[in-house]
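3.2 Worked example (two chains)
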Amino acid sequence: MIDSKKGVLAHVCEILDCFSQERTELGVRELARLTGLPTSTAGRLLHEMMEHGILQQNPDTRTYTLGIRLLNWSGVYLATLDIRAVAMPIMTELQQLSRETISLYILDGSDRVCVERLESPQNVRIVARLGLRLPLYAGSAGKVILAFLDAEHSEHILAADALLPFTQHTITNPVVLREELAKIRKLGYAYSHGEWIQDASGVAAPIYGPDHNVTGALTISGPSQRFNQDIIEKYGRDAVNAAMQISRLLGYNTHSSGTAYRKKLSTITRYNE
């Protein structure tokens, strides 16, 4: 029986949310268990979704997979998607919260590129130039991207790039950098002090795409004198929440990765207690 308080569309969404990269095929009983629907109700909804091309059924196993109609819809969405337009309202809110410079970086090869930024309204501030291209090993945005890339991609970049210093605080030792990346993965965000601009600090969180790969980073940056440990921890939590909002709007499915994300937020919360 369909829950009248939710409606049919809500149940359809619940069924679709059960599918992930780890669970590409599901049977009617498993979907009923995951959604809490009676098996008969789930079966009826699945049949209707299949008739409309939202799902397709394997004739041998009788299991369901996502249908071609969803691919058509996703193509329309992705064709009109602009990460800057998606991120701007969230960046604006984050700037109002922190009153520091907010920058949006995307991954491009083995570099990060600044594609959007909102400057701090304060007299003393950090200015991130649009189009600025920097390597991944220096600064919070680069390190957080490098930390959350898949291991093969990350190691390829570490092996190929010479770790040249921008300042005396730039990490140029590969062993130390790998240790730093491990800490970032545990913490969920990255921070830096003067690694590519002297006396400038930043806190950054990763942004994910619909393929669950890191695609960029969101950064809060300002003069180091304003970034004490309490502020870093607060901005870390704020940056992670804002970056995850952007990731969801880009098509990142937190249902299949929700456990890891909740653990990450729990870790961040503990650091702030």
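3.2.1 Second chain
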Amino acid sequence: MKLTMLGTGNALVTEVYNTCFLLEDETRENDGYFLVDAGGGNGILKQLKRAGTNWRDVHEIFITHKHIDHFLGALWLIRMILQKSAKGEYKGETNIYGHDEVISLLLLTSRALLNEKEIGQIGKTLHFIAVSDGESRTILGREVTFFDIRSTKAKQYGFCMRLKNGEKFTCCGDEPYNDCEEKYAKGSEWLMHEAFCLYSQADKFSPYEKHHSTVKDACELAELLGVKNLILYHTEDSAIQRRKETYAEEGKAFYHGNLFIPDDLESVDIKEE
């Protein structure tokens, strides 16, 4: 399986796209993509194109929460799917997963902005699926369990995917780890965790006031949880050309596994052997 980071930045970035990513199973012909979040606008279409992925081929989508930088891009995908479906120009069916608040807001906004013919395709080619805390679904032929991260800002879900080798691939959303996530995150082969900035620059970026983590925090957590591979994302972009270098330098003092600080459109091979 392959992970491609379509965006790696936080809400206010201008040098990179907002955090969202694509999981791809290259062995599956017609349903090989799982998109997690969509950023804050129609840039999601550009990022998918730059990644070599046709938006028409993405049939599994998960929106973690309603913050603008994760949510609004989904509306562009919804528009494209329903618009083309209404014209008979769309093949297959697409599922959008999210907790009840996300699904309700997506439906409300879609019905307010799109025409009746397009709205009429909801439930036919496009399915909005509300998932609950601890609920599992089969996506890309793998069990995916959604869980409430107990956000203090807006209700948010992460997920844990069981890889083909039995190991766990866990995404903790875009807020600091909460103890309620332990059964999913502990011992994960792969952990995705936000890192708003360097700990050494916490005074400059105020991550804790925004309820975010630093590189040091995320790396200490991964070490404690016995994570083998840690992927950092949802960062500031003030010195994007040196981000990979500076984040790795700080992180290696606290974490001894494999540390990834991907750039936009960079892919990571998620081994399942």
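3.3 Remarks
The chain is about 25% helix and 25% strand.
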